[in-house]
Amino acid sequence: MSTDIDYYELLGVERTADGQTIKSAYRKLAMQYHPDKNAGCKDSEAKFKAVSEAYDCLKDPQKRAAYDRFGKAAFQQGGFGGGQQDFSGFSDIFENIFGEFMGGRGGPGAGRTAARRGADLRYDMEISLEEAFAGKAAEITVDVSAACEPCGGRGAKPGTSARSCPTCGGAGKVRAQQGFFVVERACPTCHGAGEVIAEPCAACHGEGQVDKRKTLSLNVPPGVDEGTRIRMTGEGEAGARGGPSGDLYVFIHVKRHPLFEREGTTLFARCPISFTTAALGGEIEVPGLDGETHQIRIPAGIQSGKQISKRGVGMPVLSGRGRGDMVVEIQVETPTKLSSRQKELLEEFRATETGDECPASHGFFSKLKAALG
């Protein structure tokens, strides 16, 4: 029987057949051509071996994937066959199929990590609410690893260069066969860099980086809030072996304000007023973060807890136009120190009360009397 017959044709299934279909087809053919049922028949024996070989390949997802792409060439040089097995040929085929998903080489030197981007850094900055309102130009000092100037961050002595690692051939990785699998790990000689430095730079001792304190200018835009993140591109740690630097992220923290609380672009303030202003109405002045004094009109008869909005005098919109609102919450203050004349006037006022002046309290006591009979 020819050994070139397609495995799918041997089992009588489509190339898209699932595992269960392939298994059922094999069992049917195996029972038909089993040597015990066809004693002495050479053709049946050959057919049984052929369908067994086909099923052994197609039942394994990895073997099947290799067969679908390369045919029986995937199992030459031993491959998944019996006897003395040499998996080196199949490991290359397997990597071509699955390397993109499992970190395969993808070509000479693809695993090399000589040039690597530097790490990002974080800096926490505390500002006042006034500074958050107006914005701020500031200078910050950070300690970073910077690229070594004499060697340009390469780590090699000026005038020399790194050479390809003799252990891994510049790949940065070495491979070892363990049974069915090819194990890949970082090269122990170059530690994944793919190159070694014979003459290290005296300034950085071959590291390509030196510790440095930098002073940076930072513009905090108006309207920043708690947790706002400002990115300073390329001001993070230097990259390894000449790689690009990381970024510096400045996180803003806004201190508590003695008068205002903030919610987005809205400013909230609690303002105590006298009971006479609450009763008769009037105006109060509230200083704003913009340095202006804002007039708030108080309607007569206002109660504690009432909120009054002043449009367009709140926090600026970050990276936009306009401002939010200021919301003033009224707190009516009862006087604790009265002169004799003030007490006389209040006594005269109480003598003229009818109950209509304070409908809420009058209604409450009326209901209470009715409830008690």
UniProtKB/TrEMBL annotation:
Domain of life from the UniProt record: Bacteria
Primary localisation category: cytoplasm
Cellular location(s): Cytoplasm
Gene3D superfamilies: DnaJ domain, Heat shock protein DnaJ, cysteine-rich domain, Urease metallochaperone UreE, N-terminal domain
Record-annotated J domain positions: 6-71
Positions bound to Zn(2+) 1: 148, 151, 201, 204
Keywords: Chaperone, Cytoplasm, DNA replication, Metal-binding, Repeat, Stress response, Zinc, Zinc-finger
Binding site for Zn(2+) 2: 165, 168, 187, 190
InterPro entries hit by this protein: DnaJ (IPR012724), DnaJ_C (IPR002939), DnaJ_domain (IPR001623), DnaJ_domain_CS (IPR018253), HSP40/DnaJ_pept-bd (IPR008971), HSP_DnaJ_Cys-rich_dom (IPR001305), HSP_DnaJ_Cys-rich_dom_sf (IPR036410), J_dom_sf (IPR036869)
Pfam families: DnaJ, DnaJ_C, DnaJ_CXXCXGXG
Cofactor: Zn(2+)
Residue stretches of each CXXCXGXG motif repeat: 148-155, 165-172, 187-194, 201-208
Zinc finger (CR-type) residue numbers: 135-213
Residues annotated as domain CR-type: 135-213
Entry's free-text remark on domains: The J domain is necessary and sufficient to stimulate DnaK ATPase activity. Zinc center 1 plays an important role in the autonomous, DnaK-independent chaperone activity of DnaJ. Zinc center 2 is essential for interaction with DnaK and for DnaJ activity.
HAMAP family: DnaJ (MF_01152)
Function: Participates actively in the response to hyperosmotic and heat shock by preventing the aggregation of stress-denatured proteins and by disaggregating proteins, also in an autonomous, DnaK-independent fashion. Unfolded proteins bind initially to DnaJ; upon interaction with the DnaJ-bound protein, DnaK hydrolyzes its bound ATP, resulting in the formation of a stable complex. GrpE releases ADP from DnaK; ATP binding to DnaK triggers the release of the substrate protein, thus completing the reaction cycle.
Protein name: Chaperone protein DnaJ
Gene name in the database record: dnaJ
